[in-house]
Amino acid sequence: MSPPLKRSGGLSGSPKGSLSSSSALSSLGAKSDKHLGTKKQRIDGSSPQRKSQKPMNRGAGSSSSSTSFQRQISRRMESPGSSMGDNPAQARKSSKKLLIRPFSKPPQVPDDYFDKTWDNELLVAVRAIQDKQPVRSSYEELYRKVEDLCRGKKTTQLVAKLEAECERHIAKQLKNLEDSTLSQEDFLASIDRIWEDYFSELLTIRSIFLFLDRKYVVESTYEKNLFDMGVQIFVKRFTASNKVKGTTIKGIVSLIEKDRMGEIIDKSLFKRLLTMFA
């Protein structure tokens, strides 16, 4: 009997066994090289190269989305309830402008409006301020009344009325002081009180007639406001009363003499009286 044949697959044998063994060795070598290369990349900190992916073609997607958006817009424009789909004639009708035309003639103020407004409202408010009484109407309402009169070209008449009322009031105050029998010190205190009250009243009255004050300064030839007009009225009436003027000057001189002699005087009163003459 012949000896049994040896199996192929070793180092020696048939050519097929040698080819299979050599291919196995080459694949094992390739795996080891790949494993070593991966370790080397990990040690170096670099990541293994990946296969480059093909960039997405975004142009096609964006163009399709923009096309769909344009289609939606065109549908909305073509819809019957849309304002964008109206025809040009309807668009012109909807875009008409609102024109406000002024009066051909300015509205006329009634002839008796000035007298009624002055007698029933403005004069009542001025006298309430002078008598230190509450004003019935609001200051804003009175301001609007003054504005209406000024716009109705009643500036000159309104200034004349206000000037006459201020002069009447201060003349009455100085006449009462002139007829009084007060001592010199009480007389100085009274004239100081009259001046301080009158000063405060002018400021309050001017706040009501502020529109007139601004318009009067612009239209007047000598550019004086209502406050300066009121001060001039006080100076005029004070100078016209010889008794009040003389007694006041004598009292101020007496205060100066007392102060020089070392006597105690009311210096605040003395300063206010000098301010009144300034």
TrEMBL record:
Which one GO biological process term can you cite for this protein? ubiquitin-dependent protein catabolic process
Using the UniProt annotation, give all residue ranges assigned to the region (Disordered).
1-104
Q: Report domain Cullin N-terminal positions.
A: 122-277
Q: Where is the composition biased (Low complexity)?
A: 1-30
Question: Which Gene3D superfamilies does the UniProt entry name for this protein?
Answer: Cullin Repeats
Molecular function GO terms recorded:
ubiquitin protein ligase binding
SUPFAM superfamilies xref list: Cullin repeat-like
What family, per the record?
Belongs to the cullin family.
The record ties this protein, via PANTHER family, to:
CULLIN
Q: What is this protein called?
A: Cullin N-terminal domain-containing protein
Query: What organism is the protein native to?
Result: Rhodosorus marinus
